[in-house]
Amino acid sequence: LPSTGSLSSKCMVLCRDTLLSASLALLELLPQPLLWCSDLKRWIQGNLTICGRSAFLFDEMDKMHPGLIDVIIPFLGPSWVVYGTNYRKAIFIFISNAGGEQINNVTLALWRARKDREEISLQDLEPAISKAVFENPQSGFWKSGIINEHLIDFVVPFLPLKHHHVKQCVISELVQQGLEVRPGVVQEVADSIPYFPEEEKLFSSTGCKTVASRISFFF
Questions:
Q1: Mean pLDDT, to the nearest integer, of 94-122?
Q2: Per the confidence metrics, is the pTM higher than 0.70?
Q3: Which of 8, 16, 24, 205 is the 20 to 30 A CA-CA neighbour of 184?
Q4: Averaged confidence pLDDT in the chain
Q5: Which residue range or ranges hold the Torsin-1A C-terminal domain (predicted)?
Q6: At what angle do helices 183-192 and 163-176 cross, to 10 degrees?
Q7: Which residues fall within 8 angstroms of residue 8, CB to CB, at 6 or more apart?
């Protein structure tokens, strides 16, 4: 699940109106990262026992220590009951920056082959994503049982954004900040974003990450 986020690695569980978070930052620097396995399993099990309809978000999987994520395999498997509790209502979401460059390259190549962004299918991107995310020794999914046992239900690639997508982000940010949506400002902010490739300037190099910080320069 490639993304453009810049957050530190972390795991979140959302249960109704309760938000519990446990930082997993800098796991790759720990001398014995596997010591976290039992803690992670116990933490997930405890929260799912309290609230079966939980959603767990693992951000920046590309920075997670390989093998650590396999501790959650029992919660993803075909069994309806694990450790005496039904966990089939839980949702696990994995986000990774890995594969972003490959997705951009495939998208650009398909555009040059006269296939527009909106016409791109998952099948067009799967080979590039698999190689970058699942076959990368530095990835948290490296030799993971989650992949080998086909426990991921859906892969959602984030395609690069075009100019009109960035303008939508600008409008959304202006509304969120309570500012007037001026067409001229929307255009100027969108135009200030770097685009690639250099000649065609088709796709935003940074997505919409810098939109909020740029608005103040034009308002």
A1: 92
A2: yes
A3: 205
A4: 80
A5: 161-218
A6: 120
A7: 23, 25, 26, 59, 60
